[in-house]
Amino acid sequence: MTAIEPQTIGVLGGMSSQSTIEYYRRIDEGINEAVGGHNDGDLLVRSVNFGDIERFIRTDAWESAGEYLVEAAQGLEAGGADFVVMATNTMHKVAPEITQSLSIPFVHIVDVTADAILESGVETVGVLGTRATMEQSFYRERFAEHGIDVVVPGPAAREAVDTIIFEELTKGVVRADARERYLAEIDTMVSEGAAGIVLGCTEIDLLVEQADRPEIPMFDTTALHVERAIELSLGETTGIDDGR
């Protein structure tokens, strides 16, 4: 049996439980696939109350959100995590506050996704996510730092995409008509110049996958974030640049 000494992954989750479950499952499965035997991930999971997070988002209480998540992330560091991944796209709006509060690395979901986009040769992507992710500058500007342009759906479509996330996907509800709506928005963004699509919410991969539109590259932020966490835990990559 192979003995391993992986780094401990701190998963800041609960935003929502659906995506946190996927992070936990995929990390364990990925490490077992890489190492074999009965090995799986060395993880600490801090699952926050999604009701608090939803309220912060809806009321634009980002300062309170930052304080709340800083405390949770610091708890992971105190518990022995070697680095932190936050299992959500939207709450990366407060990633700078979290990063500065930690003495361990924070692995930013946009940076990981941008690496995959650039490797594919794509320069313009369409983004599906919550309204905050699609409308506010933090997401677009982080991609711009990597030289990647962002296209988003129109106002009515953004509202529909956001509603499906909060009222269905975060509750584990997956409906065929919601999938068709998302695919229609993908087609529209492609017609407007997107050469790839970012699934910019960690629940969207429950609804849409590459096989739905094989001709257009999709960048699944959950899968990419998990893959990087596994690589870091197993020492297959080093040198996290978290902006400090």
Plain-language structure description:
The chain is of the alpha/beta class and 244 residues long. It folds into two domains: 9-108 and 223-233, Rossmann fold; 110-220, Rossmann fold (3-Layer(aba) Sandwich). It is 50% helix and 13% strand. The chain contains ten helices and eight strands. The chain has helices at 17-35, 50-58, 62-79, 95-101, 109-120, 131-135, 137-145, 155-167, 176-191, 221-233; strands at residues 9-13, 43-47, 83-86, 106-107, 124-128, 149-151, 196-199, 218-220. The strands form two sheets. It has a four-stranded parallel β-sheet, sandwiched between helices. Helix 1 (17-35) packs across helix 10, helix 5 packs across helix 10 and helix 8 (155-167) packs antiparallel against helix 9 (176-191). The longest helix is centred in the N-terminal third of the chain and has 19 residues, at 17-35. The radius of gyration is 17 Å and the shape is globular.
Describe the global form.
globular
Number of helices: 10
Give the tally of β-strands: 8
Q: Return Rg in Å.
A: 17 Å
Give the proportion of residues in helices: 40-55%
Which whole number gives the mean pLDDT?
95
CATH class category label of the largest domain: Alpha Beta
